[in-house]
Specification:
Blueprint (H helix, E strand, L loop, with lengths): L2 H22 L13 H11 L8 H32 L6 H23 L8
Helix pairs in contact: 3-4
């Protein structure tokens, strides 16, 4: 069999396989529940197990501390990455590194402000 014909046959087989797979999955994401539809089962389970986002003051402050620690570490890693890029590629430096650090600091300060203002409600009962 010539190479061109072999290539065309391979393409036809792949397209036929894709068509077969698409027909098997047709209407899989329907909104109507039916037996075997994993999406509906997941949606129901996630709605039933969604926890209330409420907590006592000690837990809230502990989580806020974790957020601040993560933000500090993220900023440190970002600045290290900016210097690594500078060492690998000196084109446009130090302006590129300065811009990257400023963007990182802006994101850090906005996220830190959001974490400081974060106030989930206390749990009732």
């Amino acid at each position: 069999m010539p190479t061109g014909a072999r290539f065309a046959l391979t393409i036809l087989i792949v397209l036929a396989a894709l068509l077969g797979l698409s027909l098997c999955g047709y209407n899989y994401w329907d909104s109507e529940p039916r037996e075997g539809n994993l999406f509906d089962a997941f949606r129901l389970a996630s709605a039933e197990t969604r926890p209330e986002l409420c907590m006592d003051e000690a837990t809230r402050e502990r989580i806020r501390g974790v957020m601040f620690d993560a933000l500090d570490e993220s900023l440190r890693q970002h600045i290290v990455h900016m210097f690594e890029v500078w060492m690998k590629d000196d084109r446009g430096q130090p302006e590129r590194a300065r811009t990257g650090v400023q963007n990182g600091m802006r994101a850090y300060l906005n996220a830190r402000k959001g974490a400081a203002e974060w106030m989930p409600p206390p749990c009732a009962g």
